[in-house]
Amino acid sequence: MGTLTELFAPDRIAVVGATAREGSIGRAVTDNLLSAFDGEVVPVNPNYEEVLGLSCVDEIGEAAADMAVIVVPPKIVIPALEQTGEAGVENVVVITAGFGETGGDGASRERELKEIAAEYDLNLVGPNSLGIMSTANGMNASFGPDSPEAGNMSFMSQSGAFITAVLDWANDEDVGFKDVASLGNKAVLDETDFIDHWGDDPDTDVIIGYLEGISQGREFIDTAREVTQDTPIVLVKSGRTDAGAQAASSHTGTIAGSEQAYEAGLDQAGVLRAESVQGLFDAAQMLANQPVPENNDIAVITNAGGPGVMSTDAVGDSGLEMASFEQATLDTFSEQLPPEGNIYNPVDIVGDADVERFSEALDIALADDNVGSAMVLSCPTAVLDYEQLAEETVKMREKHGKPVAACFMGGESVDASAGILNEAGIPNYFDPSRAIGALDSLWEYRGIQQREYETPADFDVDQEAAREILERVEERGDNRLGVEAMGLLDAYGIPTPDGDIVDSPEDARAVAEEIDGDVVMKIVSPDILHKSDIGGVAVGVADDEVADTYETLITRARNYQPDANLLGVQVQEMADLDAGTETIVGMNRDPQFGPLLMFGLGGIFVEVLEDTTFRVAPVSETEAREMTEEIKTAPLLRGARGRDAADIDGIVETIQRLSQLVADFPAIMEFDINPLVATPDGVDAVDIRLTVDPENL
Ligand code: ADP
Ligand code: MG
Predict the structure, then answer these.
(1) CA of 574, nearest ligand number
(2) Ligand 1 residue neighbourhood (C-beta within 6 Å)
(3) Near ion ligand 2, which residues have CB within 5 Å?
(4) Is the pTM of the predicted complex or chain greater than 0.70?
(5) Nearest ligand 1 atom, CA 530
(6) Rounded average pLDDT per 10-residue block, the chain, 697 residues
(7) Do the strands 321-322 and 297-302 form a parallel or antiparallel pair, or are they unpaired?
(8) Are strands 233-237 and 206-211 parallel, antiparallel or unpaired?
């Protein structure tokens, strides 16, 4: 696949299926291209001599084009695409629908389309795409009703309809774009290709997107990490709820990954995630026009007490903080402001404030090193001219080079001033929380820019030993493994208690005698998933009770399920539960992001509180450590109420080692260490469960 530069900057576009027939898509695309495209447009259609005044060729081979837009009926897309490939045209937008999204015939047609694209190495957008646009050359290769205005954001969307709605709105709001792409079914080019391209495009300052799914999660993360070093990416990912995911899947045939995977994956990728379309554009416009702040302290300058309090609340809900001014700033405020004002943040310059007082106060606040950004918050008064205030706000923003948001409250009286602000890249909002939210995105992006992504550690492990254990599922005809596979942990250096699996009371006793103190005994059977639920775990067994306990456990298992496959009984050293905390370290393979690691506290915490956190593997040490820090019950690990802190380093290393194990073996579909007992002296994995896909071994 070549670069996408040519896709957005072709010289000659062939419209395969062009027609003058009113109401047809072929007509709409041709009209749109004729409206402003700098290059040539060549209609391709054997039924016509000319289309809309352009002479029409029979096949694409005669068009001498460097890009093709395909709008023919679904049944003839495949031959048309083949001719396109034969003609050496590598950039193709397939607008025709009726592919993977319809299932059945459509799905097999999509497979054929992919094969042809691979054969001819095509940069193919779609199928089922609205088209693509670029304001750099006036190209509107879509059937949408509007063309975008020029700007420095590039926009991709998995929904074409959403693009038409956004452009309609954006044109009203004077929001412009560099490129726009409707991804359609993403049969060939997907979101990763576009962010990769726009990341290198000097005219794209912010990438925004509406996605219903991400095709290759890990690839997306790795690409986005590079791109977001200098180009912010803001995404709305719909289908956050199960019902939403279901709807998305029938819309574009997206296989939904889990919301936890998206949340973790997009965060690890350095993507800013917006919850709503409004949040998307609030963040994007701020990022497209203003510098990132040096710190997260914000100054609020206001002529109104009530909205000032609202802004304080909004700051409290964000990653920003109310700045504490330097003494010199406070002194100047005291001199300049009326005594009934407030010199502390939010700075209340009182209801009779005119433009001059506003401007001075903003100037003073922005000059303070403790202030990273500011918000001008005003209510209309008889002494205040909004347009002049807008001009002063712009002037101060430029003078100090710090980000400023505006919240000029009101209705029609605001319109003219909002235009002035908008022109200068300062969005104006009625609601202080939106202004704060937009500034917060800038701050969040600064954090992303400063991230350093470490390579995951590569521990010295015994892969061969692990493989042998995993291969046992093949002979067992069952893809689940339990404590009989504890050797996997030994092979990957994750601590386990001493012990062994035995199949007679005598051997049980012999193993127990080798172990100091009482032991734990557990039934071992792939048919018994939750051992303690059937009384299959005996904790604190003295040596002379071991033989009897063996019989008891076997009897209980037989009573539970007479034909259960019993592999024996595990005799295990006791972990110190009094001094320790039961944690859980697990992995689930997500269809989009691959191995998704989970960490949380074990027992009731995991089930009742759902106090867990997720990362896409492989993880670095920092990512593993964050997991241990961000669960709600993290203080318990750090040692609450006089307890000693657990060995958090041991947990971190266990997460990293499990990460390596599941990355090394794609055959491992699920893995749970539950519990991993973490005491002040170390960690012990006392129970495991995993599912293996033998096909992948
Ligand atoms: P299952 O999850 O199948 O019921 P486990 O092996 O996790 O079986 O045992 C259940 C519980 O028994 C654990 O959560 C833990 O509280 C306790 N337990 C199991 N093994 C040990 C051990 N070696 N030392 C101390 N407690 C243990
Ligand atoms: Mg368990």
Answers:
(1) 1
(2) 497, 520, 522, 530-532, 537, 539, 572, 574-575, 577, 582, 674-675, 686-687
(3) 674, 687
(4) yes
(5) 3
(6) 84 97 96 96 97 96 97 96 97 96 90 97 97 98 96 96 93 93 97 97 97 92 97 88 56 60 95 92 95 97 92 95 97 95 95 96 98 97 95 98 96 92 93 95 97 96 97 86 96 97 97 96 93 94 97 95 94 94 94 93 75 94 97 90 91 98 96 96 96 91
(7) parallel
(8) parallel
